[in-house]
Fold each of these.
Amino acid sequence: MLINYLTRLTESCRLCQQEGFRPTTCSGMDGLEGMLQEFQTAARFVCVSDTSQCSTFERGGAWYERRVYTVWVVSRYRFGDLDDYRRACQLCREVFRQFQSRMIRDRECADGSMLYLDTTEMRSNDLGADFLNNATGLYFLVTMERPLDLMYRPEEWNEP
């Protein structure tokens, strides 16, 4: 669900379209395969991890599942060109800013499809100049918190 949502954001964001950002997926930082497969034909990516960190917690007598996903916004730059590096960093930060504003809006939409998207705190980290083969950008964390049914059901257990 979140991968499809962020793919749609990338495809509908005017800035992403103008600058040629491609949506792709990966399996965490050690598996940026989706982006690496297209590295020869594209210079900019929004890469969503198909893995997440998960925790279960109780709040107000109800149980919830919190999943945290990582999204990379990456742009290549010309080797040794500090101005191009800075432009690439700023471009990725602006894409993130636009995504944030859209996520806040979408969380409050009447259809409720993104109701569990946590927009109270959205963290990001810059990648720096040595990220990956003349590419830089940032990654940000997206949190989804959904109610979880942890009701005990005796029929699920083989006990006397």
Amino acid sequence: MDGRVQPAIHQYIKEKYNVDYVDTITLAGPVKIIATRITGSLIRDLKFRVAISVDVHKSDIIALVGHTDCAGIHEPDDLQKKHLIQSVKKVKQWYPQVKVIGLWLDDDFHIVQEIT
């Protein structure tokens, strides 16, 4: 949900994956929530929102995003990146018909790195 992240992510996805629009679903610390929770209202809400993007807007790629200094995850970057990888695996199970990627932004919020 950090506004410092949005411009670089949108530009990266538009250029790399040749799309005109990027749906944005925001939540503080989503990669940790997805990686560590199996059920609950936050997971149900995320699935509902992503389903709209995939099923109604016909999105064919889902990007999960993590970044340095995340206020929703008070953990070192290496642990956040592990959550990112785990969350990508989970979301691939939810939506096997679309490409799911993990993106990481460093502390200047301009360099986007794909995490696999």
Amino acid sequence: MRATAALGLGLALALAGCDRAKAPEAEQVTRTATNPAARAAAAGVTPMNERVAVIGLLNKRNGIVRNLRMQPGQSVRFKDGVIRLRACETTAPWEAEKLTGAFLQLDIRDTDDQLRRVFSGWVYKETPSLNVVQHPVYDVWPKSCAMTFPGGAPAPSDAADSSNRSSAQNSPGPSRRAAPPAAAPSPSAEPSNAT
């Protein structure tokens, strides 16, 4: 009886030691599950603070466009205003609808020399009419957002001037033109099966 009890106690202690060895792993999983940055890194998605966006800034008075390279959390001061990038996102390469968006805030210096927020919200490269920056002098829009997805697939990073190119299909040039349809044979050339 004593031998069986001692064997049972030894087995229980061995199993308890196994549980202690696994405890740090369980803590790590719990920490990863509660920390959004750790979850994103574990999933293979670029954390927000490591993404890089190219933001277009248009001065409507003189037609000058500036390309601003920013990371979420950064702000850029220009002539009489400040633009802040809070977040940027690009849909995954395997998704059907491709969207590149950025959460932007635009503050403009008012006549009393105070900054006033004129825009705060998401704007999209592909559909700028979803959320329009309504300001008489300035317009802002995202051009790209560089980030990675699970499996290390990077999002397509467009060139800084990509929004200036047309998205319309090219018309076929002289070498791509379809051949004219073949002429139908005349009815008199066909054999007649009439009896």
Amino acid sequence: MNVNFGAARARVKSLAAAVALVVVAAVALAPAAAPASERRSPRSLTAAVSAAIYDRAGVTAAAAAAEGRDARVRVDRRSGDRTWAFGVAVLTAPHVEGAYPDGWLFVARRDGRSWDVGLEGSATFRSLAAMAPRTVVLAHERAGFTRAGVKPQVIASGNTRLRLPYALDQTWAMPGGPHGWAGSDTPYSSIDLAGGDQIVRAAGSGSAYLMCRGWIRIAHSTGYTTDYYHLWDNISPASGSAISEGAYVGYTGTDITCGGAASARHVHFSLLADGARTSLYQKSFGKWVFWPTTPYNGYATHGSTVRYPGGGLYNYGRLGANQGIVDSNGGTSINKRSGPGTGYPVVGSVADGATITISCWRNGTSHAGRYGTTSVWDKLTDGTWVSDAFVYTGTYTIGPQC
């Protein structure tokens, strides 16, 4: 079952019909010299956030209305003096293939008659989140909201430290391989998943947000964020409430409340960093590594095992920060040696696809594997050594040098 949502949505830029097509949710833009998310706006809160939405999306209110899109603003928290606000900002999409909604968290501050608005991922968002009262930006959110980007040790690695968004030891189909959030757009940040018990679960622990009916966002402590769309009977969490890895999120479905299309039930699963979609290239989920090629194609590998669209992905769980996946690059196992090089005796073997735990590394003899040529050797916790050329860790080295 292959779900294909076609080409990315078109962006209509005409300003000619602005007066005729402005609707209640569409607000006239201020001068284009500075994005609304980075400047003071003399509007009501809803109007100011709406303007920021259109600026971030690169469309005018009139053009968005002509496409059947509108800005939706939900305020989840306010300060007692009503000068601070936090919530969700969404730009809906038409109900057609190749169209998907955009959405961000926002922080806003009123100064006199004006509002400063910061959308997720912007410098203004980080700045306002750092200053906001604790009733507006919660204590457990502040570190993630004020950090520019994913934690360096995580972003430098393809290992997301996340599982696949369903129960461990289940195998689900990947009807749509790596593709853009809206289909053929880039980066290829998303995959479609369906099957098993159809229960969608959190890929990792974090803070949960309801973006729209059928659409849940989870901000993880690593700095990555995951989106889950098309859900049925999804949770409606209190904004920013804690969610545990593996917790129920919803059922796979075909919900398109905020736009787009879905011809068969599935979860549209996407990865973001710092408020923007990020490529799945060599990223791992559930100990599968993803290789985008063209939209809805590409494949995933677990060691030397390859799965193409329509194939099943067994959920092995998340890959730990000091772990690797043995990838013999076509073989059935790799040798373990007593030292960092082929000049040392073979003292055992480890199967292709096995998970290993690494204590430190050292340079030794050079070898070539799926991920290139390297002289790095990994010392395992049992004291044996394997060539890093035949191990996926998502990074060049793990742990200290031995």
